[in-house]
Amino acid sequence: MSAKEHLTWETDLRLFSPEMAKGWSLAMVATWLVMMLILGIVFVAQGEAEDLPDLAGVLLAVTAGLWLLGFLVMALLFRGGLRVRYTVSETGVRMDTLDKVAKTSNRLAIALGALSGKPGLLGAGLINRSRESEAVAWDGAFRAELRPQRHLIVFKGSWRSLMLVQCTAENYPRVAARVQAEMERHGTSRRIPGKSPLPAYLGRTLLVALASFPIFALHEEYDLDVFLPLLMFCFALATIWLIPLFGWVVLGSLGLIAFTVLARLLEETPSYIRPGQTFTLLEVMSSEDWLMLGLAGLGAGVLVWLSLGALRGRIQAALMADQGDMG
């Protein structure tokens, strides 16, 4: 077989395979954890920690419903399969989505999200649209798991699966041999890091939560709109997991929070004890107030450090690291 020969075939990617079911289930678990983290920190900061068990139950029911809905969509809308085309070449493996239902759904989600002003729907549509064509290159850093019983090849990066390649019964031996030869020739699997980066991402996530908590606590004390720390927190998580550029939103949110708190501290308030006189909160702050501001400032400093590290490339987002693994 020539090293420059392309292997191309069309097939149905099975949506009810163990790999797809596991991926969807883990995505729903991650969804529940993220919602608990975001809403939980708001509840605790507002002194409503006793409501956390109820919140966990409600969110669990919501994510369980989404999990079931996902399988229903796979069964009824996609009929258990997604039509795709694979191309194996001297540069890597490319997967193109051919399924018309999937393409139409992605474009409909983008249009409805834009028209209705729903960023979640718009974002989901854009992400799915961008994944209609995916590729892994032999100059990346991943390994190939061969599963001949189901004619499947799974490319795995340092901490998650990057691509499923569903072969046919006829071409599986040829494709598997080509994949093994190309990966050996390029040393693809030898570039995988010695340890998983997942603990580092989880550690930064915990650090973001701890740094954000005292900032959320400013909400009631200084009449701070809870939207600002919530925006800051969500984009700080996105900076760790998705795109470093979201760090600019974190820095902007922190600037608005600082300006709002400072304006509240310097605002003159009429004195009820001494009619005709005014005072500012800055003049009557207690040691507890200073401690709260100090902890919030420390948390803000940590978030600034993480955001600048991401923007300057010292801290790599999980999604961007995956793109590097794919080559």
Secondary structure layout:
Elements (H helix, E strand, L loop, with lengths): L6 E8 L3 H28 L6 H25 L4 E8 L3 E6 L2 H17 L2 H12 L2 E5 L5 E5 L4 E5 L4 E6 L5 H15 L11 H19 L1 H4 L5 H15 L5 H20 L1 E3 L7 E3 L6 H25 L6 H9 L1
Antiparallel strand pairs: 1-2, 2-3, 3-4, 5-6, 6-7, 8-9
Helix pairs in contact: 1-2, 1-6, 3-4, 6-8, 6-10, 8-9, 9-10
Sum this structure up briefly.
This protein has 327 residues and is α+β, with helices and mostly antiparallel strands.
Which labels suit this protein?
327 residues; 3 domains; three-stranded antiparallel β-sheet; elongated; PH-domain like; alpha+beta; 15% strand
Structure description:
This protein has 327 residues and is an alpha+beta fold. The chain is built from 11 helices and 9 strands. The protein folds into 3 domains: 125 residues, Roll (PH-domain like), CATH 2.30.29; 63 residues; 129 residues, no CATH class. It has a 4-stranded antiparallel sheet with strand order 1-2-3-4. It has a 3-stranded antiparallel sheet with strand order 5-6-7, with helices on one face. α1 runs antiparallel to α2, α3 runs antiparallel to α4 and α8 packs antiparallel against α9.
